[in-house]
Each structure stands twice: as C-alpha cells, then as structure tokens.
Amino acid sequence: MQYTVFTANESASTKISETHALVIDNESVELRRQEVVRTQGSYTATAKVTLPATLSTGNYTLVTTISDGKVNKTVKTSFAVN
User: Fold this and answer.
1) For 2-17, what is each residue's pLDDT tens digit?
2) pTM for this one?
3) CATH number, domain at 75?
C-alpha cells in the first residue's frame, strides 16, 4: 500500500501506525502492527503475515490501515482459502 506523508516542515517527522488485520466472520483479527517515524515523502507499507493455521475454507479480507492518529487510509484485499 502506498501512502504519502506531508508535514509543515520538510525535516519534521510524524509517527505512523501500519496495521494489517484479517476479517474472519465479520470480526477483525490484528495480524501485525508496526509503529514507524516518517519524514515527508512517499512510502510503501508491505508486510509478510502468517495466516492462522485454523483458517477454514472460505473468503476473507485483509485490511491494511495507515494512520498518523488523525488521518486513516485503509485498503481491503479479498482472497479465498481453498
């Protein structure tokens, strides 16, 4: 997921939270959360996540959210387990 950080001053930094969650039966299960400090610029949030071994056959959604505590950006990716 690509995102851009804008700050009032180019050298200023902002704390960003990158969260990856799996939606199972309409419930969100957090798989990974990373807190990073970013300066102004464009970034890509990537993460390797391990799916629960007990995951049943079906359709699921992986939700990635980027947040600075004030503004959130979310991307949903659907996939199937056969």
Assistant:
1) 999 998 888 899 999 9
2) 0.84
3) 2.60.40.3880
